[in-house]
Design brief:
2 copies of one chain form a homodimer. Chain A is 71% helix and 1% strand. With 295 residues, the first copy, chain A, is an all-alpha fold. Chains A and B meet through helix 2, helix 4, helix 6, helix 7 and helix 8 of A and helix 3, helix 5, helix 7, helix 8 and helix 9 of B. Chains A, B: Keywords: Isoprene biosynthesis, Magnesium, Metal-binding, Transferase.
């Protein structure tokens, strides 16, 4: 079992939902194609898998959870398109394929990212979420917005850009990752709980804690793979973080130090699960496979 | 009385709300400053004024309306930052001041736009909207999302970019404006109604019709002013649309033809108001001043 085979079924369901949502946006075909390129070019769908699994554990309706999962993935997809732009990380390749501004053009890539962000919020307002009261749907919008904007992901990317070619402390690096990627991963867990039944709401904080540590561990593993992985499996040039002088855990702690940190975070993630009185085996398996992946 | 003096009080209230909302986003100071630059550099606040006035006519709570108005203005502000980027319209100057990517840098401008869009949706979920049931708040999110994304504003900007240096038909030009600027102006009216009492909901379509014609007329006037106005009053180089070979009403219809079209649209806007059994004098005055402005 690999992380890709674990998430395969959820990936298929979320992708099918995303295809449907995108198929309705016919006003400008080129924009639509660029959006599809950004969303449907693959990826492990970690955030949707986390959301759907937490939701299922919390007794959620399957369709509600898929809809929320699609929204989170749309935010993630938009952020990748914008992060790859020449003015940002200037990446030509992602998952072995040309990035959006290479396959289309820069203006279209900016607009595709913009429109994908909008679509994320639109998706959360759809009537198909009939099992959820409006207050909960509104909370989904709020949690996703707080994680994505200047309190979360966007601020993280800004901090990351400003930190390039600077030596930062481990605390500063952690703070950057917590906002850049951690906030959205944690939001996926929160949204999973919000899709669940009333009883499950009391465990929200524990699920969030799990996601918090998992997100950080995921990032440490990413930094390790950038050094130890190979270009083909990663879908991006190996060592690209080192080449661009980004701050990484490996640079700060060395390979062994980073591996130690990874184990430590993984352990804390599993500990958070142990406080929850539901069967969380699937989340345990998920974090094991995610943190032992080789690309 | 000018359009600027008419909207002054609303502008102040919305700006004060926006300042408060932005003051909370302290995670990355540079990103925060760029966001403030984009939002608080002035502007007529046409969309907030329209929303607040429609809301007031429809018996809305003042704070609910201001909050919704702030959300619409945040979307507008983000779109201006992104439209000004080098890859898009490449404008250095807006309202007589350096655009966001000139005052900061391109990456920060992209992120500031992204985070302002997110903030728009966050603002609509705040608890301060205590007079509105959650269903209505969710409808506000939905209307704003549909108007801003690949069904509306983003598609309009994509169409606009693709049409540069091409001769298009008047229908195609109208279609472009309806999505690029019309959708958000109409959304402002819809959201005003949604903030209102239950009774007012039946007049939603009439208010939307008014905004639809007003938005188109506003665009025709904009094209006319680009030819007849002066750089100082406009805050951007006079003739900049002609220089960039954009399709305009003046290019298609000539100055007189465009002025005729403006009168015609203005008339249709006022006609839509006449069907509404409330006192809509303020909207009449608003459209008169807006369409007779000289910058």
């Amino acid at each position: 079992m690999t992380i890709n085979s674990l998430t395969a079924a959820t990936r298929e369901q979320v992708d099918s939902f995303l295809k449907q949502a995108l198929a309705q946006l016919t006003l400008n075909p080129r924009l639509n194609q660029a959006m599809q390129h950004g969303v449907l070019m693959g990826g492990k769908r970690i955030r949707p898998y986390l959301l759907v699994t937490v939701a299922d554990i919390c007794g959620a309706n399957k369709n509600d959870a898929l809809q929320a999962a699609a929204a989170v993935e749309l935010i993630h997809a938009y952020s990748l398109i914008h992060d790859d732009l020449p003015a940002m990380d200037d990446d030509d390749l992602r998952r072995g394929q040309p990035t959006c501004h290479i396959a289309y053009d820069e203006a279209t890539a900016i607009l595709a990212g913009d429109a994908l962000q909008t679509l994320a919020f639109e998706v959360l307002t759809e009537n198909r979420m009939e099992q959820l009261p409006s207050e909960r749907q509104l909370q989904l919008v709020q949690v996703l917005a707080k994680a994505s904007g200047a309190r979360g992901m966007c601020a993280g990317q800004a901090i990351d850009l400003q930190a390039t070619a600077k030596i930062v402390t481990e605390d500063a690096l952690e703070q950057m990752h917590l906002s850049k990627t951690g906030a959205l991963i944690t939001a996926a867990a929160t949204m999973g709980v919000l899709c669940g039944n009333d009883n499950a709401q009391q465990w929200r904080e524990k699920f969030e804690q799990f996601a918090h540590y998992l997100g950080l561990a995921f990032q440490v593993q990413d930094d390790i793979l950038d050094v130890t992985g190979n270009t083909e499996a990663l879908g991006k040039p190996q060592g690209s973080d080192t080449a661009s002088e980004k701050s990484t855990y490996v640079r700060l702690l060395g390979i062994e130090g980073a591996q130690q940190r990874l184990q430590n975070l993984h352990h804390k993630a599993l500990q958070s699960l142990s406080d929850i009185p539901y069967n969380t085996d699937r989340l345990e398996q998920f974090s094991d496979l995610l943190l032992k992946r080789d690309h």
